[in-house]
Amino acid sequence: MTELDETHDAARRSWVASANSHPDFPIQNLPFGVVSISGCRPCGAVAIGDMVVNLNAARESGLFAGEAARAVDAMAAGTLNGFLALGSGPRRALRKQLFAMLSEGTPEQRQIEGFIHPAADCAVLVPARIGNYTDFYVGIHHATNTGRLFRPENPLLPNYKYVPIGYHGRASSIVPSGREIRRPYGQIKIAGSDAPSYEPCKRLDYELELGLWVGPGNTLGEPISIAETEEHIAGVCLLNDWSARDIQTWEYQPLGPFLAKSFATTISPWIVTPEALAPFRIQQPSRPQGDPAPLPYLFDNSDQSNGAFDIRLDVLILTPGMRAAGQEPFRLARSNARHMYWTARQLIAHHTSNGCNLEPGDLMGTGTISGSERDGCGALLETTQGGRDPVSLPSGEQRTFLEDGDEIILTASCERKGYATIGFGECRGQVSLQ
Ligand code: CA
After folding, report:
1. Which residues have CB less than 5 Å away from ligand 1 (the ion)?
2. Rounded to two decimals, what is the model's pTM?
3. Are 241 and 175 in contact (CB under 8 A)?
């Protein structure tokens, strides 16, 4: 388990004024990413308050030493794959040096000041070349709610409590927060018609998920044992798995989701590290009475005792009508990462259990993380009962599924008494106006 150290000291303040009490990026967070500053070549960066530090430029001027310097050198290509491959040692060293350099009263303030830029001047990019993207299905309330729409008597299939269910997603269409989403066209078969037609999706939906960034990974044929999995989780982001429900309904059997999912996936582009998340680890919630224990290759005592996360997750919507009325985004749902039936470490162990190799910069979606109640549902499919029960918005509008111009914003917040609150930054995407 990641140790708590001085970088978790809630009393520590930064000389970067906007960092102090920042909801997402106080000095105790220090997430890594890739940014293009004023249109320049992409560089490795860390977020602090409303600012970002150009790590590559700071390194060129002689800042950082030892393992921390090695970590920044691995970012020089403008992607973080090399950095993610290094594992936890260099990442922790860099975090500690940055924490010291950005703390109030440090003698190094003058040296690093020249490499700090307003986040508003930066484009934050997808932080790694994502070789492979896998999406899981670990939100048990989501699996139950959606299963109930199709199989009211028996919502969960018998494999669910044994197998962390997943499918291989599309990596090329993963975009950073802020990119517009085009409504996909596809084959849609309307109930009662004899044949499908090719037309724009009418049941466009979001899915509230976390993304897990893979660290060093494994050699083909050599599974990662559950005991070793911690080292291979390099960080976490928010992930919106945009979904075309009408395309999905027609195409998904027998091989699972395909074009209903592959048109776009939005992520929050900052990699929040396991070190930053250490205070927010919790015991894996106990399984309901009668559920089977995980098979031995998925069971580890330390994982059971601290492998889950207490991360509050919100979904907000901003429609054209709300924008015209000058209204703030409206919260559609509030959930929490504690509703994951399988831990992040179990996903790594299961994914590699057949010998499949994970590579640095691979991304794994958790699957939709819903709470148990309607106001915790992480997708409109659940909230509206398959489109039967619309959501009312403050503008007087209603939604069953997303309309053109609607914007979906996912946010996360980690709060614990005695620790600084951290967040992930936004995962935002607007359905483009046709
Ligand atoms: Ca999904």
Report:
1. 135, 207, 241
2. 0.98
3. no
